[in-house]
Description:
- InterPro entries: RNase_HII, RNase_HII/HIII, RNase_HII/HIII_dom, RNaseH-like_sf, RNaseH_sf.
- Belongs to the RNase HII family.
- With 213 residues, this protein is an alpha/beta fold.
- The protein has helices at residues 7-14, 44-48, 65-77, 90-96, 98-112, 144-147, 149-172, 178-181, 187-196, 207-210; strands at 19-26, 35-42, 81-88, 121-126, 137-141.
- It has one domain (7-166): Ribonuclease H-like superfamily/Ribonuclease H (Nucleotidyltransferase, domain 5), CATH 3.30.420.10.
- The protein has a 5-stranded mixed β-sheet with strand order 3-2-1-4-5.
Amino acid sequence: MKLPHKTLERKLFNSGYGYVFGVDEVGMGCLAGPVVVCAVVTTNHFYNKHHKKLCWLRESKLLLPHQREKFAKELLKEKDLVYAISSVSPRTIDKINIYQAARLGMKNAIKKLKPNFNLKTIVLVDGKTRIKGVEYEQIPIVKGDRKVFAIACASIIAKVYRDKMMVRYAKKYPGYGFEKHKGYGTKHHQAQLASFGPCEIHRKSFALVGKLV
C-alpha cells in the first residue's frame, strides 16, 4: 500500500516556508449531517521528528474506526501540530450546495488558525481548486489525502470528530441508525428514511432526501 509522504512539506520548509497547512473535509456524500473540515498547521519541527506511533498513517477512508481513533489521539498530543475544525450545517448545504459548503468550511477552519504572520505560509488543499477568500499561497492536490501527510492528518481528525457528532445526533434523532452509517446513504439508512421521512439534519437538496420531502 502506498502511504502519504512528507516529501512536499519538507521541500516547502527547505525553501523558506515557516508554516504548512493541510486541509481536508469529510461528509461530502452523506444524506444527513454537516460537512466537517479540519485544517492542521505544522512547523518544520514536526517533520524533523520521527513519529513511531504515526507509522502507517493514511487517509481516513482507508482506516478502520479504531485505527482512526488511535492516530487522532496521537496527532492531538503533538505540540508542533495545531488544528481547527469547522462544520457547515445541512441547512447551509441546502442553501449554497455541498461543494460551496465544503469550501466555506475550509476557509473558516483556516481562519481559526492564526500563525505568526511574519513567517511564510502555504496551504495544501485536498481537491483540484484553490479556496476563495484565503490570503495564503495555496497548492490544490487531487487525492491529496492519499498523497500528502499533512492532508491525511487533517482527514483523520475531521473524520473522528464528525463520527462523534453523528453518534450524538443518533440519540437526538433515533431510528435512522446515524451511529452506524454516520449519515451515508446505506440501504438501511434509505429504508429508515423512507419509513420515517427526513429529520432536521437531512440534506433536503440531495435527490434521495428531496423526493421524500
